[in-house]
Amino acid sequence: MSFEHIKAGDIVSRVFGDVERPMKLRVTKVDDTRIHCAAIDANVGGWEFDRKTGVEEDEYLGWGVRFGVTGSYLISDTDARTSGEGSPEPASAPVAVRRSPAR
């Protein structure tokens, strides 16, 4: 699944570790490489996700595509509603990120 269609104002869900329900986030900004998000019902933000893969990018935690591991990732609410599969199974530990070959 690609996240390149996501735009500011969209609602996405962050799947995180053992949490049973994804966290709803509002996209606040999109740039060439990242999707920037904030919580919907609170003035809390600062989450960044890779625009191609949806994995959380957090240099402080060592999460992201360049590190090869992440603890959370995005699913689009539209994709989750239309897939017929419901929410994906959350990871119980940081998830390895599959790296694409350099182009």
Q: Describe it for me?
A:
It is a single chain. With about 100 residues, the chain is mainly beta. It has one domain. The protein is built from one helix and seven strands. Strands 4-3-2-1-6 form a five-stranded antiparallel sheet. Strands 5-7 form a two-stranded antiparallel sheet. The protein is globular and about 30 Å long.
Quick structural overview:
The protein is mainly beta and 103 residues long. The chain has one helix and seven strands.
What would the principal axes of the Cα set say about the shape?
Answer: globular
Question: How many angstroms does the end-to-end distance come to?
Answer: 19 Å
Task: Give the oligomer, counting copies of the same chain as homo and different chains as hetero.
Answer: single chain
**Main sheet record:** 5 strands, antiparallel
Helices and strands, in N-to-C order? EEEEEEHE
Number of β-strand runs:
7
Q: For the CA atoms, what is the radius of gyration?
A: 13 Å
Q: Unreliable segments (pLDDT under 50, ≥5 consecutive)?
A: 79-94, 98-103
Q: Can you tell me the number of structural domains?
A: 1
- Fraction of helical residues: under 10%
What fraction of residues sit in β-strands? 25-35%
Strand order of the largest sheet: 4-3-2-1-6
Mean pLDDT: 77
- Structural category is mainly beta
Number of helices: 1
